[in-house]
Design brief:
There is one protein chain. By secondary structure, the protein is an alpha+beta fold. 29% of the residues lie in helices and 22% in strands. The protein contains 15 helices and 18 strands. The protein has helices at residues 8-17, 51-60, 108-119, 128-132, 157-163, 231-240, 251-257, 293-302, 305-313, 342-351, 368-380, 392-400, 420-427, 438-448, 453-469; strands at 31-36, 65-67, 74-76, 79-86, 89-94, 135-142, 145-150, 194-200, 204-209, 222-227, 245-247, 263-278, 359-364, 384-389, 406-411, 473-486, 489-490, 505-506. The chain is globular, with a radius of gyration of 23 Å. It is found in: Periplasm.
Length: 507
């Protein structure tokens, strides 16, 4: 395995700034300036994915319920309470003081509209998958009450309401047959703690505190989000006072930057995990190597996950052997574990009929150092890896077209400490599920349809056991949340690893 040393980026940034002190510190104009490497192109989280968009949605949007990151309890937000009418009918009672950013008051009709729109096939929204598996329809039964009719018993409905669906005004996405899925992509009208002032896609987003926000108002008045692709440029901006916050910082870069008085290095746990998804179902090639269990087991044995965690991910990272985060409910750690054993990997490849290895297109879209380390480990046992490092959109398109034999992916579970948050989308009815195992999908579905915690654990144990025995995945590591922030910024870390910038304040 080969590792990249990127600490020299700090030296470059130091030279670029001359170790200058912040000239435009955020407290002076009460503006928190943050940097993101990924382009921000769409402000409507109902139609996006990725961690960057989750962070922004925390600033601009509100949901019916919220997770408490300390306890993982689900708490009211736009909803004030809920009542079960029967086991498949849920009434949600709304607060009466929630306003949209245009000053209009949120009504029950808006909530019902949002959920029904996302449930409809014509919405084509990223959030659709969260509601379509349980929602039949939402209806207004009183000025402040929405009734959700469910297709089946589904104990995780409040979790879904707390994790994904952002509320929109009735008619937002078009009326009278005219559909506009991009209606909120740039001119977002939402109900969260900050409102959009201006947005230049791929360049800059400017937010200001929404004074009519129904919840606890943020301490900082303004937030500016800048797209800065290069990490060295981000560091230079941080030291010169151009920004106050950056994330996804490599461990060695963050440690080196921490020596600079004007910068603090913050690090904590993250529910995100990394893994390889292997085309066991033969979607990309019905007779391909990944259809053979010995090959998939060989891939698992070939990967030095302990070193990847130690040298590339940071001190809070750990190697994993399950298709979930060890901290998640139901993530059984007793399943089959494939120790790092390159010789055994070579033996399994020979048993499968590939003593000289085989060519493999390995797709990846993020964390290039990790992808390169994985490719190096696989090459060492004889697999001729062609690393196809692409944009996420390209990977998504290729996966939907069933053209990918293996890819390096990650999943943060939306900060939800429950195996359900990763199992359903990766082993249910989704193009992410490359196992081709219908019985596995049934186990995952069964776990979602019981309210008994012990039964849920049993289903997940069985499902995770199948995934491990059949080596449908090659689990890699847990992630570490690394941040560099201005020394005068107080930025509390959440145990689920999700940055909540609305909780930041000046020291």
């Amino acid at each position: 395995m080969q590792f990249r040393n990127v600490a020299n980026l700090v030296a470059v940034a130091v030279v670029a700034t001359g170790l200058c002190t912040p000239a435009n510190a955020g407290p002076e104009d009460d503006t928190l300036r943050i940097a993101m490497a990924e382009e921000i192109l769409n402000l409507d989280y109902n139609y996006t994915t990725k961690r960057e968009y989750i962070i922004l949605a925390q600033l601009t949007d509100a949901k019916l319920f919220e997770f408490d990151p300390e306890t993982q309890d689900i708490k009211p937000s736009v909803a004030s309470e809920f009542e079960w009418v029967d086991e498949t009918t849920l009434d949600v009672i709304l607060r009466d003081d929630v306003k949209f950013h245009d000053g209009s008051r949120l009504k029950a009709e808006d909530v019902a509209y949002t959920y029904n729109w996302l449930r409809s096939p014509e919405s084509e929204a990223n959030a659709t998958g969260v509601v379509e598996r349980w929602l039949e329809k939402a209806e207004v039964v009183a000025p402040n009450r929405v009734r959700f009719h469910m297709t089946a018993v589904y104990p995780l409905v409040l979790r879904d309401m707390a994790s994904r669906v952002m509320l929109r005004k009735a008619g937002t996405y078009g009326e009278d047959g005219q559909i506009d899925r991009d209606a909120m992509s740039s001119a977002l009208v939402a109900t969260g703690p900050y409102r959009v002032v201006s947005f230049e896609p791929g360049t800059e987003l400017v937010l200001e505190r929404f004074e009519d926000y129904f919840g606890e108002k943020p301490a900082i008045e303004n937030v500016t989000v800048r797209n800065i692709p290069d990490i060295g440029t981000q560091q230079a901006e941080l030291m010169s006072g151009g920004i106050d916050w950056m994330f996804k910082v490599p461990e060695d870069v963050a440690t080196a930057a921490d020596a600079i008085p004007s910068i603090d290095f913050l690090s904590g746990a993250d529910l995100r995990i990394g893994f390889l998804v292997l085309d066991a179902g033969g979607w990309s090639d019905a007779e391909g190597p990944m259809t053979k269990v010995q090959v998939r087991q060989a891939v698992n044995h070939a990967l030095n996950t302990e070193e990847i965690a130690k040298f590339l991910m940071g001190e809070s990272s750990q190697a994993i052997h399950t298709a979930c985060h060890p901290a998640q409910f139901g993530c059984d750690q007793s399943v089959t574990k494939y120790d790092y054993d390159p010789q055994r990997a070579k033996e399994l490849l020979a048993e499968a009929g590939y003593p000289e290895g085989f060519p493999l297109d390995l797709w990846a879209y993020r964390d290039k150092a990790v992808a390169e380390a994985v490719a190096s480990d696989l090459t060492a046992v004889g697999i001729d890896v062609n690393l196809r490092y692409v944009k996420l959109e390209s990977l998504n398109q290729a996966r939907a077209a069933r053209e990918i034999p293996a890819y390096f992916g990650t999943w943060g579970s939306g900060g939800t400490a429950d195996t359900a948050a990763i199992a359903q989308i990766h082993f249910g009815d989704s193009d992410r599920n490359l196992s081709g195992d219908d019985q596995l999908s049934e186990l995952v579905l069964a776990a979602e349809q019981t309210a008994d915690p012990d039964e849920r654990k049993a289903f997940y144990s069985q499902a995770l056991g199948v995934i491990a025995d059949e080596a449908y995945w090659a689990p890699l590591v847990t992630y570490t949340a690394n941040y560099l922030v201005a020394a005068d910024l107080e930025f509390p870390l959440s145990p689920d690893g999700l940055p909540r910038l609305q909780n930041a304040r000046w020291k």
